[in-house]
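Supplementary Note 3. Input sequence used for the single-chain structure prediction.
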Amino acid sequence: MNVREELLKNQDVKYKEFHSKLIPNVDSDKIIGVRIPQLRKIGKALPDNDFAWDYYEEIMLHGFFIGYAKLPFEERISLLDSFVPKIDNWAVCDCVCSSLKFINKNKAVFLAYLKKYMNSKNEYEIRFSIVILMDYYLDDEYSDLAINYLKNIKSEYYYVNMAAAWALSVAFVKYREKIMPLIENHILSKEIHNMTISKIRDSFRVDKDTKALLKTLKRTK
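The predicted structure, written as discrete structure tokens, is reproduced below.
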């Protein structure tokens, strides 16, 4: 498969214009304009990952290859070592994280690997760790560990804070008794606190009375 030709064949110029506005930190000249479902389809058909990293979609495909290809766990980890430092936007981070289903069969081992990104200073390495925790570790076995990490995040990075708020809002639906005290007692940073409330109030899985209560808990300082 010629990956570049396949991407250009599936280019949608209007989608490129729309999607470029959602990831403003990526040069629009580096976006071909291929919709995510089609990218996933291409990613599942890749025979290997021997292709360029020049375009946004190509970087995404490298991540999809790690998730979709039939590879030993150790090889996936090795490929992630090369891939994760190349993440420079929320879309690649979040879409690829959701494709790494192999984590479900290796949670304890992968968590040990993830800790180097949890302790990173890089914006998108931290976001990667947050989204992975949200996607695979908000369960009865690991939720306390995940929430403890999330509640202690103090960051100046917008995409880190937004990811933390997103993860906490997801946790709230399943573990309200663990998240509500963090909000009521102002445990979170102000930015994450208010973002978390907004994300929870956007959820269709939270009742109107709870949303009204949360609105009163927003912080001004």
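The mean pLDDT is 97. The first helix runs from residue 3 to 9.
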